[in-house]
Amino acid sequence: MDVPIREEMIRLGQFLKLASLVEDGAQAKEVIAGGAVTVNGEVDARRGRQLHVGDVVRFGGQAARVVDESTYEDDLPW
Predict the structure, then answer these.
(1) Given CB 3.0 to 4.6 Å as the disulfide criterion, which of 5, 22, 57, 70 pairs with 27?
(2) 60 with 36: CB under 8 angstroms?
(3) What is the pTM of this model?
(4) Which residues contact 49 (CB under 8 A, 6 or more apart)?
């Protein structure tokens, strides 16, 4: 799934919450530290890892790609 962000970057822990891959910051911290999260195919245990447009995060059988909100088309009528 594509997850749009407003800024140039977002931290990994924040992105997991934004993408609804985890419920809260505590869970994000736990799964990242446990090595259960990959960024662009590599395990990354840094909650503060900076993600940029095009990065792909995988956790729990799901994948989320960082996209630029200004170019994101969601097909919603508003």
Answers:
(1) 22
(2) yes
(3) 0.85
(4) 11, 12, 39
